[in-house]
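Interim report, section 4.2 (structural modelling).
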Amino acid sequence: MTTQSWLSQLKAHGYRLTNARKAVVEIVATTTSALNPLQVYEAAKSTYQGLGLVSVYRTLEKLEELELIQRVHLPDGCNAYLPQADGHQHLLICEGCGKAEYFEGDNMEALFSKVAGKHGFSIHEHWLQLFGVCSQCELAASG
Amino acid sequence: MTTQSWLSQLKAHGYRLTNARKAVVEIVATTTSALNPLQVYEAAKSTYQGLGLVSVYRTLEKLEELELIQRVHLPDGCNAYLPQADGHQHLLICEGCGKAEYFEGDNMEALFSKVAGKHGFSIHEHWLQLFGVCSQCELAASG
DNA sequence: TTATAATTGAAAACTATTATCAATAAGGAC
DNA sequence: GTCCTTATTGATAATAGTTTTCAATTATAA
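Predicted structure of the assembly:
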């Protein structure tokens, strides 16, 4: 299970397993949508009442350091986090429920290097994010 | 010239042409890299000494409203602005000098709708940004 | 030139994030 | 299990970025 595996990795890096960390990991490791620190805080408090917002910031920082989560930029804010994808993946985000799914773009790299060549750039990083409405939200809206 | 055209558009929408607005427009209409409010403020102050930071925020807001500029998300901040591109373009940004260039991805839409179909999403918006180093910065680094 | 209302810059308020610090508690040694 | 050390905590203060407030100014139409 992801939560356990993340806790093991924290431990393996010499970090102590505290109630605050367990509560934050439990939320972030299992979320399907990108969450900002305040959202994590509110969700994690139901597991561990005594949690402080500051500990959420600190735990997110460590999880990002260990590459278990990644920061996601959204139209309404740039501090949301999502479990990190394996390999190089792109994002599909539902504007209704916030659900985020990774996808792989076939042959995207080829396009990128073509563009890079044309403009005389060497590419180091890329962001590709699609925003839309998932089928459930579509249904909910029409039904 | 872009600056004049932007000022005309502000005027056409009933906004007064003040020194503060002229100074901000002059900077933002001619920039080749995405600038945040503070950067605009500092650059525009050399044109109009009395400028206040608050007026920069307010002017950027109006320019965005009129779709003359667009907000750009960068790894180190999400409040930079760039003149808006015609049509649907993507961004190529130099990590060295900050220069931003638009490009058109051929057949990108086809890929997006394929992905959308596969995941059951309907896409409303997309972000595609490539980060790298432009030829000038490459040269500067090696030379 | 004058009147008027939009706009301004300075200061205050607000929000999000980070640093400080004494109290707490995790986890290794025994 | 108990003790000890020190990482970690939550509360508070500090900081940074952005927005609101407001009296003074100024663009513009008459």
